[in-house]
Amino acid sequence: MGLIHWEGFSLVEVSRILAMKEGTVRSRYHRARASLRSQLQLEHQRHTKAPGPSPVP
Predict the structure, then answer these.
(1) What's the predicted TM-score (pTM) here?
(2) Contacts of 22 (CB under 8 A, 6+ apart)
(3) Phi and psi for 44 in degrees, rounded to 5?
């Protein structure tokens, strides 16, 4: 993912650099983005949850 986002390489270039099929690079890139999106959503939910009611003593 870093080669594409931070270094600016295309999927074709990354597939050549890593000696992988373009389809493999594409699917791994898609899975990495989906995983990152899911992790960020969970982290956002964790930090934005409204506090529950205070326990009654």
Answers:
(1) 0.71
(2) 11, 12, 15
(3) -65, -45
